Structures are given as structure tokens and as C-alpha cells.
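QA checklist item 7 of 12: single-chain prediction sanity check.
[x] sequence parsed
[x] length recorded as 101
[x] structure emitted
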Amino acid sequence: MINIGITERKISKMGSSLHVSLPSHWVKEHGLKAKESIIVIFNKALLVVPKHLGLRNDCLINELKNLIRAGAAHEQLMRVKYKNKDEGDIHPSHRGGGAYE
């Protein structure tokens, strides 16, 4: 089983730069220390990866694209559900999915 965490972070300002702190559990899990490098891939979403994992940039870009596509697909399915509040109007493939109920 993959252990996935989710947390909300506030954006802080230091001089003219904006900052977001990393979850301490994640930092410890990856053995990161101050001034070490991380890779940040961004577009509509943000993906943060420890540099020492040695993942190729093209692989990371593909992962971010997959996240964006999955988010767009989920958003579209939710629009269908809330647009068609009558269960009979929802396409059968969208019924009974635990995440959509």
C-alpha cells in the first residue's frame, strides 16, 4: 500500500519572495537538510521531489501531466454528477463509484 499524505500549508513572505514550508515528516523521511536541493515541477499543479532520488526530468514532467489530466477528468465527472442531480440522468459508468457518491 502506498502511504500518501495531504496537508494544507500557508504561503509566507520573506522580502519579495513567497515561501511554503515542507511537511517535517516528509523532510525526515527523505533525509533532507537545510540548503539541500529539491526538484519543483509546476504548471496547474506543483510536484516536489528530492533531488537525491535521481529521477529524470522527463519522467517528472510526465508524472505532473498525469496528475493534471487526472484532476481534469475528476473535475469533468463531478460536473456531470452535479449538473444531472437526478440519478437517472447520469451515465451508468458514473454511478456507484465510491469517490463520486
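[x] summary fact logged: Residues 89-101 have pLDDT under 50 and may be disordered.
[ ] second reviewer sign-off
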